[in-house]
Amino acid sequence: MSLVLAGCGGSNVAGGGQTGGQTGGAGCEAYTQYGDLNGKQISLYTSIVAPEDQPHIDSYKKFEECTGAKIVYEGSKEFEAQLPVRIQSGNPPDVAYIPQPGLLQTLVDQTGAVKPAPQAVSANVDQYFSETFKSAGSVDGTLYAAPLGANVKSFVWYSPQAFQAKGYTVPTTWDEMVALSDKIVAEGGKPWCAGINSGEATGWPLTDWLEDVMLRENGPDVYDQWVNHEIPFNDPKVAAALDRIGGILKNPAYVNGGLGDVSSIATTTFQDGGLPILDETCYMHRQANFYAANFPEGTDISENGEVFAFPLPPINTTQPETILVGAEFVAAFADRPEVQAFQAYLSSPEWANEKAIATPEGGWISANTGLDPNNVASAVDKLSVEILQDESKTFKFDGSDLMPAAVGSASFWTGMTDWITGKSTTDVLTFIEQSWPAQS
């Protein structure tokens, strides 16, 4: 069902918002393509609850004002459990934000309730998103869900001020990073800190470590083979990558600065893992752009500040520079014109910029290339957007989010926790391999 296209300028409507049944007005020119949706409601279901929901709600205001539609927002901490229940009972939302591609594929395969993306969404995705993000929102070659927000995961957090005071240089290769770690040890410091405790999701930060190192050591093609189970989870390449990580995280001379010994990595929360950077009891912490939210209010997070981030360096410099990314996706369970219009809006540069402006505290980015980096709130957000818009880089989606749930959000998490607490690489990778669901 195609979207109604209206003429530019909104000359046939009056006022600066929704007044007396009229819509449009000044600033609504980009919204005429969605048509007159006065009186229409679109239900939206997400896992994003108060207070984090307010920037999302604010980002729809212009769409509502210019089209006359009403977005009915519902956030729930029980989202992932309740969404399938609502679908099965015949009461799905019009639109839902899906946090992982694996869940999207499950919903498409098992319920048949997800509607393929309309043409306007497909056009936006083709124009404004890289193939990596389009593929993650597709099932069997059909686009079902456009990307929403995004994450850049291949970052190492550090203190520019501490580095400058100590005479340390940001490493540009893995070998330089190891040499810097050795220098910090020689000077009496602990170079690394980490924390993987995250309640029922304990272990997930180590899945990102392994994904990043698989990319840097073996390249994107082998990474895809591993994620798709075209090579076994306990392939020698995977074992070598995990052992390389062990050279950092299982090295008692390197960790766990300010927090304890190697065993403290498993008991330290994800949120606390990088905080010792601030008092220089550690100097580096590998974590995604969203980790910025865990530093205390007022922390100077900038290129010359108390903390900032640099890209995790390459291992094999003959491989393309590859960045590990994540995202949420917009799935629809109805194909009414107003629902398709809202889907198209959420995949547009207009929404990406409205959402950035509506998030003045920072911590939100999009892979939409129509997003103006100047509209995001923080220096690390801007760096992340610039990386996502750099056509020279190769992007690969978070592997655990693409794997079957029995692995990606179960045995992979458990196995990495077992590994950091003492189990061998061989035993852990064999355990995860054996958990992979049999092909139907």
UniProtKB/TrEMBL annotation:
Coiled-coil regions, chain positions: none
SUPFAM superfamilies for the chain: Periplasmic binding protein-like II
Keyword Transport: yes
UniProt xrefs under InterPro entries: Bact_solute-bd_prot1, SBP
Keywords, alphabetical: Transport
Domain of life per record: Bacteria
Family: Belongs to the bacterial solute-binding protein 1 family.
Protein name per Swiss-Prot or TrEMBL: Carbohydrate ABC transporter substrate-binding protein
